[in-house]
Sequence to fold (88 residues):
Amino acid sequence: MFTVKRRLKGKAFQREFIKMKPIIAERDNHCCRVCGDRAQDIHHIIFRSQGGTNDADNLICLCRRCHEAAHGVDAKKIAKELQEILNE
Ligand SMILES: [Zn+2]
Ligand SMILES: [Zn+2]
Fold:
């Protein structure tokens, strides 16, 4: 299926993200979806810099540790795993 996702820039993107945060936190029970610890961050699975959106299927609750890992050297591998977690 061909879909065109809305691409927002700068402040509009940030405003939309802020609006999504409580929705995602609620969905994930305020817990890190990787390890189950209390979530501290909401992560863009596909980074914003790579065209990631604020859609629910691109956002996931993570604790600080898992969030740092998601931006670390294994970022690509972890992104795949996060997408699988959301698809479960
Ligand atoms: Zn975690
Ligand atoms: Zn992140």
